[in-house]
Design brief:
Layout: H1 2-12, E1 22-33, E2 38-49, H2 53-61, E3 65-71, E4 77-84, H3 105-119, E5 124-131, E6 134-144, E7 149-151, E8 164-169, E9 173-177, H4 187-190, H5 197-200, H6 204-208, E10 211-218, E11 221-225, E12 232-233, E13 239-245, E14 254-258
Parallel strand pairs: 1-10
Antiparallel strand pairs: 1-2, 2-6, 3-4, 5-6, 7-8, 8-9, 9-14, 10-13, 11-14, 12-13
Length: 263
């Protein structure tokens, strides 16, 4: 699993300074894996745009590399660095009555463009900007695990760091790991200790917003898992493992399943 995530980040490394780092907020997520390798994954809830060291520096000092969205001619947003702006101070969007968010114009534009890009991806049933640097997402996808699976990963929208990753191990095993469903200030260790990652990890506000559950159901053999209460039996012989995600969650949900072998 570390190899898979390190590979993803290695590909994305040149973009880390200018890309969207999303973190889970309030959510319910499920993963059902059958012994025949069929699966369904869902994520319903909020994601938050994390403040990296570079974006925090921009907001706090009014100087740095501003970020903006361009149109590449195919209506696909692409994030890039703009020129250095001396004395730049991002304007904040005043909250409407009953709202308490205070996002900058850049953050609003970025998140609305991101919502538009993600909504075009298969599996995203709805994506909308809701303020406080957050998107509300309803995602569901089904398929066959004869290849790796990562959520979310959208190179066009430049969403880089995975909440959940499934890796094929040998011919008959799957390893599930959900680094996003643990305190994101530990993201660097979850990603294998890549140099520079602590500076690009999620901020304390994003980590404190983590509030969700991740439920794995399966009729496959559970080889290992790291939930203290273990796998609970389900009617019909299946099993269920439920992890709670909150700011105190230090260890990413992890499980290994034995499934039908590949040819």
């Amino acid at each position: 699993m570390t190899r898979l995530i390190r590979w993803l980040v290695a590909i994305a490394a040149p973009l880390l300074l200018t890309s969207c780092i999303l973190t889970p907020a309030k959510f319910v997520s499920t993963l059902d894996i059958r012994a025949d390798r069929s699966f369904t994954f869902t994520y319903v809830g909020e994601v938050q745009l994390a403040k990296t060291r570079s974006t925090s520096s921009l907001s706090d000092t009014g100087r740095g590399d501003a970020q903006s969205w361009d149109d590449d001619g195919e209506k696909t947003p692409t994030l890039h660095k703009s020129a250095y702006l001396t004395g730049f101070k991002p304007q904040r969007i005043a909250a409407k009555k009953g709202e308490d968010f205070n996002d900058t114009q850049d953050e609003v534009s970025q998140l609305k463009a991101l919502a538009d890009a993600l909504s075009k991806e298969y599996g995203f049933r709805s994506v909308r900007y809701i303020g406080n640097r957050k998107l509300a997402i309803d995602y569901s996808i089904s398929g066959k695990l004869d290849h790796a699976f990562v959520f979310p990963f959208n190179p066009d929208a430049e969403v880089l760091l995975p909440f959940v990753a499934i890796e094929l191990r040998g011919k008959d095993k799957l390893r599930i790991k959900a680094p996003g469903y643990a305190n994101q200030q530990n993201m660097a260790s979850s990603l294998g200790g890549l140099g520079g990652m602590p500076a690009m990890g999620a901020d304390a506000d994003a980590s404190s917003a983590l509030d969700g559950t991740f439920t794995l159901t399966t009729n496959a053999t559970v080889v290992s898992q790291n939930q203290e209460e273990g796998a609970q039996p389900l009617p019909g012989g299946g099993k269920k493992i439920v992890w709670k995600a909150n700011p105190q969650t230090k260890e990413a949900p992890t499980a290994v399943l034995q499934v039908a072998p590949l040819p």
